[in-house]
Design brief:
It holds the Pfam family Peripla_BP_2. Belongs to the bacterial solute-binding protein 8 family. This is Iron complex transport system substrate-binding protein. The protein is an alpha/beta fold. The protein has two domains: 145 residues, Rossmann fold (3-Layer(aba) Sandwich), CATH 3.40.50; 121 residues, Nitrogenase molybdenum iron protein domain (Rossmann fold). Helix content is 38%, strand content 17%. The strands form four sheets. Strands 3, 4, 5, 6, 7 and 8 form a six-stranded parallel sheet that branches. The protein has a four-stranded parallel sheet with strand order 11-9-13-14, with helices on both faces. β1 and β2 form a beta hairpin. The longest helix has 20 residues.
């Protein structure tokens, strides 16, 4: 973690206070201190954490649920996300949400981070990090606040394209890294094992023929979709399909409708979120003249997954299971 010398005393004092507020006993905290410092690889660079973060601010639902799935609600100062991301009362970590402060339904800012007295911000490129506003890992470091970047969002050196490894590998890498950073490695490895087992089970039952699939996020003039580095790439492939945009070296990106028509997907997966919900998106796809002869539209083969299913999150394995079950129902041509 990057802590400037002039704020070392303040951050040390803050950690002592927040550790108490998080109900971590002095003996437990002392016992775990031998674990630190720890260094992890984050987006190709080594990042060192000198203590267990005690006041973490997360941005967006997938990132927040990575923390909650590891049982780290007591290490969170709060989370930032819009209120359009689904029913949080029915998720496995609902209690974690109940015990964690919803800091804002708008964008994350440096002022919000400082007001929350955060010692770590867990966000990502296009998931909170923003060169224009200066809310970046480097910018936070100048304020004495640490950072961890979602691996799915890592920039890959091709201008601002994102993604450096297969999406599920990114999920497992983040769980493993968070396990080390927060000294909960057994829990992290347990989750990784469970997720790999669920993915393998879904993959084993996938259809022999791989139907072509297009991920539709949003956009009418031009569609926003998923390349090979965003979670839908492997959600589709592990479920037994083939992402028609899997040749794009990016995570989330914009394409032209002509490329969708040319690739003629047999199935369209809708990303359900925002003011324009799944049903409105479905109606647009079915009424858009350019898509009238696309197989998925012509045969009404449109499947819906929620936003949190399709960004890096603990819900990715379940999304694979559900999509695989749908693809198995398709008739053999």
């Amino acid at each position: 973690m990057f802590i400037s010398p002039r704020r070392t005393l303040a951050v040390t004092t803050l950690l002592a206070l927040t550790a108490c507020g998080a109900e971590v006993t002095p003996s437990a905290e002392s016992a775990s201190s031998a674990h630190y410092p720890v260094t992890v690889d984050n987006c190709g660079s080594p990042v060192t954490y000198h203590h267990k973060p005690a006041r973490v601010v997360t941005n967006d639902i997938g990132i927040t649920e990575l923390m909650l799935s590891l049982g780290l609600a007591d290490r969170m100062a709060g989370y930032v996300m819009p209120d359009e991301k689904g029913d949080l009362a029915k998720v496995p970590w609902a209690a974690g949400y109940d015990g964690t402060k919803w800091l804002s339904k708008k964008e994350i800012t440096k002022e919000l981070v400082l007001d929350a007295k955060a010692d770590l911000v867990f966000a990502g490129w296009n998931y909170g990090w923003n060169d224009t506003t200066g809310l970046t890992p480097a910018g936070l470091g100048k304020l004495g606040v640490g950072a961890y970047t979602l691996t799915e969002s890592c920039r890959n050196g091709k201008e601002k394209a994102r993604g450096v490894m297969p999406p599920l590998d990114a999920l497992y890498a983040d769980l493993a890294n968070l396990g080390k950073i927060f000294d909960v490695e057994p829990k992290a490895q347990q989750l990784i094992g469970e997720f790999k087992a669920e993915v393998a089970k879904a993959e084993a039952g996938a259809p022999a023929r791989r139907p072509s699939v297009f991920l539709y996020d949003s956009g009418q003039d031009k569609p926003f979709t998923s390349g090979r580095f965003a979670a839908p790439e492997q959600i589709i492939s592990k479920a037994g399909g083939r992402n028609v945009m899997g040749d794009l070296d990016d995570s989330w990106t914009t394409v032209g409708w002509e490329s969708v028509v040319a690739r003629d997907p047999e199935v369209i997966v809708i990303n359900n979120y925002g003011e324009t919900g799944a049903e409105a998106k479905r109606q647009f796809l079915k009424s858009y003249p350019a898509l009238a002869n696309v197989s998925a539209v012509r045969n009404d083969r449109i499947f819906v997954l929620d936003y949190v299913d399709l960004v890096e999150s603990p819900r990715n394995p379940s999304a694979i299971t559900r999509l695989a079950a749908y693809l198995r129902t398709l008739p053999t041509p």
